[in-house]
Amino acid sequence: MTTATTPQKPTGYQVLHNPRLNKGTAFTEVERRAYGLEGLLPPAVSNIEVQVARRRAEIAKLDDDLQRYLVLSDLQVRNETLFYAVLMADIATYMPLVYTPTVGEACQKFGHIFRAARGMHLPITARGRLREILGNWPEDDVRFIVVTDGERILGLGDLGAGGMGIPIGKLALYTACAGVPPRYCLPVVLDVGTNNRELLEDPLYIGLRQQRARGDEYMAFVDEFVSVVQALYPKSCIQWEDFANMNAVPILTRYHDKICTFNDDIQGTAGVALAGVFAALRITRQKFTEQRFLFLGGGSAGTGIAELLSQAMTAEGMDIREARSRNALFDINGLLVATRTDLADFQKPFALDRAPIAKFVDAVKTIMPTGIIGVSAVPKLFTREVIEAMAEINERPIIFPYSNPTSRAECTAEEAYRWSDGKAVFASGSPFPPVDIAGRWFVPGQGNNVYIFPAMGMAVYATEATRVTEEMFIVAAKAVAEQVTEEDLSAGLIYPPQSRILQASLHVAERLATYIFDEGLARVGRPDDVGALIRARAYQPVYTDRSQ
Ligand code: NAD
Q1: Which residues lie below 8 Å from residue 396, measured CB to CB, with a gap of 6+?
Q2: Helices and strands counted in the chain (H then E)
Q3: Ligand 1, atom 15, residue with closest C-alpha
């Protein structure tokens, strides 16, 4: 008789319906006999290469990206190894399908395209019972949680429980871009309601039908979530994703020095911008501490990037006040100066002691920045006059229109290169195609957070880090910039090509892990070879022989 303590060998049928064990037609004849799979599969024995080719051909023939997203999601539910083998075979092609931009449409239509549930949906109506509910998750060792409350999904606003598409997609990138093993990853949505009327009236909406919880009730729910996660999964890292600013900043402030946690929208964004700056300096051949940046936009992205750049300048010996004065901000009401009465607390450290300036081009001519960074979400504000002024002031002006999506970019790649006579060192938030200017070929880079967060996850997982510190984003930024080759730089590319993301991420993870060991933040012993530790821990999408 089988008792509860003797694990039962899964039946062939169960193996076939377990995405982590399933190999589909690639089960060998020996395995088919051993598991009782004979007859449950067609007789032709395949292999993973053939299976990858079959799926890729099917996806390529589809008409639109949402259909491609669905084919990939269904594959993830059926056969996890094959899902990652497909993604990792051509990550640059599949990343925009499993994550932005396609995931945005998937989140908007989540209730309408809903198939198999994935991850944990934690409704605020279950307050006080989260331990019991999280206990339903089948894995008892969770290392990485991506969690959202769905309030600010990409640029699409409040999508309530439909925001679940984001943690699912993002975690797929932790695995595909840096090798974090999927079995340790848990996507979570904290369902606190939605203020999106369309969703509340949609009969197919999958979340709680109530207005968003706010204030003490909201924070008590987040607190309960964090403490239950700590109790059940003490080695885990929580990554906050797509919360509205009003909650994102207080949550990060509340936990960042108590648990292992980070917010990719705030910290990852700043890290990737800093990486762009470090690589750009390899082209301009200037010192970091000689730079002056002028930000168009003084919101969460602008102040977040400006603060990390300032911190990185202090790491090179500069005083923090001097460093912040080298990162000037310009918002809808003009340059941030001390005499302004409308500044929020988080903007005040960047207020300059100088006269107000109302026009951006005048601020450029007065401050004479070496780089301008656009985070205003308003298109076309980097005008011809602005770019020409930058090209007059600088031999190689740094021009980063980071606003997303493409339609919001402060200028296009072509405009930046053309108006600066090919002098601009350019990177953008959304992708732009290569540009030919007078016979010279320029390849614009995309400042995508994917260069930072998967590597951060891999380093934290491999070292069982206790904290994610601000300095780790500076370490990551330097390591990303190191991955840009001289050949990339000569084409103007200041981020590694996305096709090389796995290699780049493993390098960044190694640098981060070394820092984690140096700072005494690791919970595993330091190995002789940190790179070998990272490579040994990295997931690979290969079938294991289960017939033994
Ligand atoms: P936010 O709303 O917090 O800030 C917007 C800022 O722009 C505000 O300071 C506002 O005053 C300013 N602004 C608006 N209109 C202006 C105008 N006409 N002139 C000058 N300033 C103006 O938004 P946010 O969260 O900081 O995001 C801003 C942009 O940055 C978005 O487009 C977002 O997609 C982009 N972003 C890009 C990345 C990335 O590429 N990795 C990451 C995060 C955010």
Answers
A1: 283, 284, 423, 424, 425
A2: 24, 14
A3: 332
Q: For atom 40 of ligand 1, which residue has the closest CA?
A: 429
Question: How many angstroms separate the alpha carbon of residue 188 from the centre of ligand 1?
Answer: 27
Which ligand 1 atom is the nearest neighbour of the CA of 329? 9
- Nearest ligand 1 atom to the CA of 302 is 26
Single-letter amino acid code for the residue at 269: T
Residue from 247, 333, 350, 404 whose mutation best tests the ligand 1 pocket (most atoms within 8 A of CB): 404
Does this model's pTM top 0.90? My answer is yes
Active-site amino acid positions: 99, 170
Q: Supply the angle between the helices 470-482 and 453-463 in degrees, to the nearest 10.
A: 110
Rounded-to-integer distance, Cα 213 and Cα 248, Å = 15
Domains of the chain in sequence order: 13-90 (1.20.1370.30), 97-259 (3.40.50.10380), 267-448 (3.40.50.720), 451-537 (3.40.50.10380)
The reply to whether ligand 1 has any atom less than 6 angstroms from the CB of 301 is yes
Ligand 1 close to Cβ of residue 329 (< 6 A): no
Positive or negative CA dihedral for 245, 246, 249, 251? negative
Q: Which of 325, 346, 322, 319 is nearest to 337 (CA)?
A: 325
Residue 516 Cβ < 6 Å to ligand 1 = no
- Ligand 1 lined by 263 (C-beta under 6 Å): no
Q: Given the CA of residue 403, which atom of ligand 1 is nearest to it? A: 32
Is any ligand 1 atom within 6 A of the Cβ of residue 375? yes
Work out whether the CA dihedral 49, 51, 55, 58 comes out positive or negative: positive
Q: Is 300 in the pocket of ligand 1 (CB under 6 A)?
A: yes
How does strand 334-335 pair with strand 327-331? Answer: antiparallel
Per-residue pLDDT of the chain (548 residues; tens, 9 = 90+): 444 556 677 889 999 999 999 999 999 999 999 999 999 999 999 999 999 999 999 999 999 999 999 999 999 999 999 999 999 999 999 999 999 889 999 999 999 999 999 999 999 999 999 999 999 999 999 999 999 999 999 878 999 999 999 999 999 999 999 999 999 999 999 999 999 999 999 999 999 999 999 999 999 999 999 999 999 999 999 999 999 988 998 999 999 999 999 999 999 999 999 999 999 999 999 999 999 999 999 988 899 999 999 999 999 999 999 999 999 999 999 999 999 999 998 899 999 999 999 999 999 999 999 999 999 989 999 999 999 999 999 999 999 999 987 888 999 999 999 999 999 999 999 889 999 988 999 999 999 999 999 999 999 999 999 999 999 999 999 999 999 999 999 989 999 999 999 999 999 999 999 999 999 999 999 999 999 999 999 999 999 876 55
